[in-house]
Amino acid sequence: xxxxxxxxxxxxxxxxxxxxxxxxxxxxxxxxxxxxxxxxxxxxxxxxxxxxxxxxxxxxxxxxxxxxxxxxxxxxxxxxxxxxxxxxxxxxxxxxxxxxxxxxxxxxxxxxxxxxxxxxxxxxxxxxxxxxxxxxxxxxxxxxxxxxxxxxxxxxxxxx
Length: 160
Prior knowledge:
single chain; 8 helices; mainly alpha
């Protein structure tokens, strides 16, 4: 409420020319010399601005590198699961350059997945899968499939 009252009174005083406090003059002076506004000399301000630009460039480079690493991971996963490749990922990898590598954690994960896949595709992996099968369920499925085929054949064949 006090803010509203102050705004109304100060606007009325300014319209009469009584409320000119000099704050507007200071704001106009700040726009012409940003170094003085920051409380620095001209050289310090230029050095500060140069450091800001360098830090921004470093952050952008790191961001591009991270995006390329993620794109590389997606490419590996797409190859593994035989999914269609994305042109966007390839562009991100090219933007980062040829030095794109997966982080160590992701490399370990990919290596573990590859070892698991090799184990599943090996002869011993198939033997383990045979041991884990439910033979009763397989027998039931085979008999139901056989009876369904037999019924379909009886319906279509006039001699049976």
